[in-house]
Design goal:
- The protein has 8 helices and 8 strands, in the order H-E-E-E-H-E-H-E-H-H-E-H-E-E-H-H.
- It is α/β, with parallel strands linked by helices.
- The chain has a 5-stranded parallel sheet, sandwiched between helices.
- Helix 6 links the parallel strand 6 and strand 7.
- Helix 2 packs parallel to helix 7, helix 3 packs parallel to helix 7 and helix 4 packs across helix 5.
Length: 269
């Protein structure tokens, strides 16, 4: 069953592309027509691509790996952060830190620095610092939180990226391509779909379009996480069952046969 339908996409304005003069020729396969100088996206193809992307992103979540969401444009950041926080996935909605992927160890050091400041604030030695020192450290912590707070749980490179507006997030695309990390993305008619593993042709400017597609992806991830949880529970139950059976076999094996001396004594009498 499709995760969305033509009318739902239409109502969200997913079909509106950019002006014809701004188009990227590589998006030709996903364009239905031109109307009043604006390209109209083929929503039938969008439905197919959404289903393909949702199925793939669900499997990544089911495997226990992380998907990093990237959306730094104004109309997308609040929508994405709210939806992604509910599934406990990392996201970047402020400026993309250069080297976020290609220089990941340095980013991890900055996250550790943030955590060390948190520990310092709880330590008795914090009270011995001057007001000026406390203020400087607090400001440094706030800056790190703004840039890296949403990826503090990302201890290794993500298994995939979900990007809104590949034109704006070209640095993130370049870094992911360099490392061979799969990219899921909303791609508008003014963008290049090349080097994007899972292209979702859609309006990447309208908030309703962004919200609809992002929610479909986060719902798919949620399903994957739930299935993973169920499978792990089954595995744990099976392991406990095997241990219990093994224990019973050991008891039976160690049990000695009963002594029959009493019966022979009675017959002798």
């Amino acid at each position: 069953m499709p995760r969305t339908n033509f009318q739902e996409l239409l109502d969200a304005g997913v079909h509106f592309g950019h002006l014809k003069r701004k188009w990227n020729p590589n998006m030709q396969p996903y364009i239905f027509m031109e109307k009043n100088g604006i390209h109209i996206i083929d929503l039938q193809k969008t439905i197919v691509k959404i289903d393909e992307a949702a199925a793939a992103i669900k499997q990544i979540a089911k495997s226990g790996r992380k998907i990093l969401f990237v959306a730094t444009k104004k109309q997308a950041k609040d929508i994405v952060s709210e939806l992604v926080e509910s599934i406990k996935m990392p996201y970047v909605t402020e400026r993309w830190p250069g080297g976020m992927l290609t220089n990941f160890p340095t980013i991890r050091k900055a996250v550790k620095k943030m955590n060390s400041i948190d520990k310092l604030a709880k330590d008795p030695s914090w009270d011995n610092l001057s007001k000026r020192e406390k203020l400087q450290i607090t400001r440094q912590r706030a800056k790190l939180e703004k840039m890296l707070g949403s990826i503090s749980d990302l201890v290794r490179l993500p298994a995939a990226l979900f990007i809104i507006d590949v034109l704006k997030e070209k640095i993130a695309v370049r870094e992911a391509n360099r490392l061979g990390i799969p990219i899921f993305a909303i791609v508008d008619t003014n963008s290049n779909p090349e080097n994007i593993d899972f292209v979702i042709p859609a309006n990447d400017d309208a908030s309703q379009s962004i919200k609809l597609i992002t929610k479909i992806m986060t719902d798919a991830i949620k399903e994957g996480l739930q299935e993973r949880k169920i499978e792990r529970s089954k595995e744990e139950a099976e392991n406990e069952s095997k241990k219990a059976k093994k224990g019973r076999k050991t008891v039976v094996k160690d049990k000695k046969p009963e002594d029959t001396d009493d019966s022979s004594t009675d017959s002798e009498k």
